[in-house]
Amino acid sequence: MFHVKHVLLPLGCAYGYGMAKSTCVCGETGGRRGHRSDSLTCVSTPSLAALPIRRLTLRDLTACADLSEDRGWPREEHKWGLLLAAGKGFGIDDPEGGLVAACVVTEYGSWERSDLAAVGMVLVAERHARRGVGRRLMCHVVSTMGTTPLTLHATPNGRPLYEELGFKVMGRAEMLRGHFTPGGPEADVLTRAATAEDLPSILRIDEEVFGVDRTPLITRLPAFADQLRVAEENGRIIGYSAAWPNMDTHVVGPLIARDTKTAQALIASLAACTDRPLRTDIDTRHEELLTWAKERGLASVAFNTVMTYGITDLPGDWTRRFAPLTVAAG
Questions:
Q1: Other Cβ atoms within 10 Å of 127 Cβ, number
Q2: Nearest one of 108, 107, 137, 132 to 122, comparing CA atoms
Q3: Among 102-111, 160-169, 183-192, 312-321, which stretch is predicted with the lowest mean pLDDT?
């Protein structure tokens, strides 16, 4: 605590990014006996650059959802819960309450080493936007992950920052949303609800297609999703997908299938068991599936750019990888 004095600031200098901000309050400081005298005192608020970056946990779920809402996004508490449990959250606390910024990194690979990490939910509070906070947070993530390759889905607004940091474009995903309406010839592929006995086969095909082991994430699917279905042929699983609740929709993802016909059968079987609109993010290289979905009521909402850092392309088999569980987890 200290008394306010008149201070001359250098020309062009103002309180803001890179400087401490002072909040002035009134308080009793003494005076003649029996009388009160008030003077202004200041409580120093750290600058944004001085605020520490810390790990987020499930205890921060509400603050993360508040941050989403602050930026005009849905709160998506269900998704935040999964990401904070399966991944590593990073955030900056706002001295005035809530979070200045947050993001989540989901690592894949063996217990000894991460082979790939997906960065998602990179958000900066509106009141702190365009002040270098997002760049600082992403630089921290890149530094923390060391030599681990990174991937993310970038919005048009976020892409310039990621390019400046060295991320490279390797593809695009198209978000679709709408009520699914069956029509036309349906794929002749057997699908059914997954059982606990299917989990080893699901993990095996997921690692083949994704290119890295995602056991900590995929084993959470039965509890996270409302539906988990598999496609099979002659008793062998040839694809799987889930539908999980997100606000008023069911998100279809992950969607992993032997071919387009199998992917169509999985989407149709998931849609048959919900009255909610569907939402999914399909790799734009799967043109046939995109056309099929749009003919059945799913409309294009947005495009995200798939980017990588430290590798030129994603591992695995993209021809069987149709949609991610969520773009925030790669």
A1: 11
A2: 137
A3: 183-192
Residue 161 Cα distances to 110, 138, 149, 155, angstroms: 30, 9, 18, 11
Could you tell me the pTM of the whole model? 0.85
Domain-embedded: residue 275: yes
Q: Which amino acid is at 141?
A: V
> What are the residues facing 119 on neighbouring strands?
105, 152
Q: Are residues 21 and 99 in the same domain?
A: no
User: Is the predicted pLDDT of residue 9 greater than 70, yes or no?
Assistant: no
Residue 111 has pLDDT above 90, yes or no: no
Residue 157 within a domain = no
Whether the Cβ atoms of residue 178 and residue 281 lie closer than 8 Å to each other: no
Pairing of strands 249-257, 278-283: parallel
Distance from C-alpha of 218 to C-alpha of 220, rounded to nearest angstrom? 5
The domain boundary residue, chosen from 14, 32, 47: 47
